[in-house]
Predict the 3D structure of the following.
Amino acid sequence: MSAAPPVIRLRGAGCRFGGHEALGELDLTVHAGERVAVLGTSGAGKSTLLALLNGSLEPTTGTVEVFGEDPARLTAGQRRLLQRRIGSVSQDLALIEQVRVVHNVNAGRLGRWSTTRALTSLLWPRSLDVVRAALDRVDLGWALFERTERLSGGERQRVAIARLLVQEPELVVADEPVSGLDPVRAARVLSLFGALPTVRTVVVSLHQPALAREHCTRVVGLRQGRIVLDVPAAEATDEALHDLYELV
């Protein structure tokens, strides 16, 4: 085991929404350099787990630490500094549909910009070379000045990935980032996560075990809000995954 502090540590972390238990009391540790795929059926708790990891949700029981910090105990300023280090892709993509693509991609750089620079960039977009390069990497270089609302669902998904690329985070937390993409583009996006020089650790939820085995080093399987599988990706065979996807 690495001597360095873990990037992620969950201790008895659970979530309830009213009377529904979305996640049981989970214990999970992820070290720098790991690429973790979270697998499970719809409703297994994957999105809830990733929301805990990116700081958008607080546990109702237990604790979550990211880079040694408990987001629930940080001030607003401290939390913003932590968020700069975490690149997130959510299922709703969190894009502003009415603006041009360049502005949505540049949102990945807002954590480093002053308020004045961020506001003026809405009139005169900054860092066009950086944004164009990110869009080229997801086959959307042509869409730099397109209105985001005019793009297809899969294209908007790739805009969210480009926003992540310009952010240059240390940790990527991505909730089904390739669900709407064809197999070739899905594999390319997952390869991008591992190729970014700043990104040391990736946690990504997937529905495709084959992609998990090819692009990740570890597989964590969720079933009814509990971890029922935690193995090296090479050991996540179809037989090992059988119970994970068996209908309840």
Remarks:
- Strands lie at 8-17, 20-30, 35-39, 61-66, 86-89, 171-175, 201-205, 218-223, 226-232.
- The radius of gyration is 18 Å.
- The chain has a mean pLDDT of 88.
- DSSP finds nine helices and nine strands in the chain.
